[in-house]
Amino acid sequence: MPRLDQLGHLAEKERQQQRADMCAVHVGGVEGGKWLAMLASDLGHGLFDGALLVDNFEKLNPSRSYFGKYYDLYAKVDAEAPRFLEFERWWGGFFLMNAAEIDWIVDNVFVGNRLAQNEAELEPGRKVDLKAVRAPVIVFASHGDNITPPQQALNWIPDTYSDVDEIRIRGQRIIYMVHESIGHLGIFVSGSVALKEHTEVASVLETIESLAPGLYEMMIERETGEGLDKRFLVSFAERSLEDLAALDDGRADEIPFAAVARLSDVQTEAYEKTLRPLVRALSTRETARLPDNGDWMSELV
Fold first, then answer.
1. Which domain holds residue 42?
2. CA–CA separation, 278 vs 274, rounded Å?
3. Are residues 103 and 89 in the same domain?
4. Any idea of the CA torsion for 62, 108, 217, 194, to the nearest 10 degrees?
5. Dihedral of the CA atoms 226, 228, 233, 237 (nearest 10)?
6. Mean pLDDT of 258-263
7. Who contacts 138 (Cβ-Cβ below 8 Å, separation ≥6)?
8. Alpha carbon of 7 to those of 82, 103, 192, 215, 228: distances in Å?
9. How many domains does the chain have?
């Protein structure tokens, strides 16, 4: 298993040049949405190849993905080679989802955004109710994340609750942190984040559970000590929905996504009733293993 600091070093390097204002266009949503993921699953004989998502992520910053990271490798080849290989093995790891899994994710989280609206169903008649979650909810966002910036990571809270009083009445604790610069991948595999943010969250879980119900921002401030003895001062500040709104410059830009979701529904229905039976009939385990099968889909998914 690769170490977090090894993965994180390259994850930060590969994403640190991506800016939050970079135009990360959701091509799949605009050009059809859910049906493209369904088509990829059908071509894969019921399996969706996660490599499609990895490839699309790489194309958000092609200069970094195809040139910059290799320049950094050869510029410090003696020191960077082990970390580079560890990250590439992890980043290119084997991962498949079945059709039902990717369909649910796209329909309820991405294009449909039903999870935040308490409309997502685990099965017919059994909805996922975010208001019924009793464990503390911890959200980690970053201004350097151009895939899921703080606004997108936190806007589900005002979408779900009318005000902080409702959170309190329901006995819930929602804690969020906002990092200044770490990128999308770095949130999960960064060595520095693992040392600081992740460690401190784990160390204060009992404190979090003892907080009165409400909305809080967790802030990790000054540090003391060195090496293994390094410690960080953690504080919690009560926040309101207005504080979350201040992180955004308005939500008018979200209005067109309702049309995108509707377009996705229409095209999905058309695909299910026309092409899908044919694609499924022609798809086999052998065709799913063809070297070029699905490569073109990475341009759209």
1. 8-112+252-288
2. 8
3. yes
4. -50
5. 140
6. 84
7. 175, 176, 177, 201, 208, 218
8. 10, 29, 11, 32, 20
9. 2
Q: What is the pLDDT of residue 18?
A: 40
Could you tell me how many residues make up the chain? 301
136 DSSP 8-state letter: P
Q: What's the per-residue H, E or C state across 204-256? A: CHHHHHHCCCEEEEEEEEEEECCHHHCEEEEEEEECCHHHHHCCCCCCHHHCH
* Packing angle of the helix pair 275-282, 256-273 (nearest 10 deg): 60
Per-residue pLDDT of 21-64, as tens digits, reads 333 345 555 666 789 899 999 999 999 998 888 888 888 788 98
Helix (H, G, I), strand (E, B) or coil at 74: helix
Is residue 164 within a helix (H) or strand (E), and if so which, with residue range?
A: helix 164-169
Strands (E), 104-161: 121-123, 126-127, 137-142
> What is the share, in percent, of the chain residues with pLDDT greater than 90?
33
Which residues, other chains included, contact 75 with Cβ-Cβ below 8 Å and sequence gap of 6+? none
Distance CA 15, CA 61 (A): 8
**pLDDT for the residue 7:** 46
**pTM for this one?**
0.72
- Do 168 and 271 share a structural domain? no
CA distance 222 to 175: 19
Closest CA to 139 of 54, 204, 223, 197: 197
Query: Residue 123 domain-assigned?
Result: no
Q: Write down the pLDDT at residue 34.
A: 87
Q: Which of 6-20, 72-86, 187-201 has the lowest mean pLDDT?
A: 6-20
Band (89; pLDDT cuts 50, 70, 90): confident
Rounded to an integer, the average pLDDT of 262-276 is 92
Contact 15, 181 (CB under 8 A): no
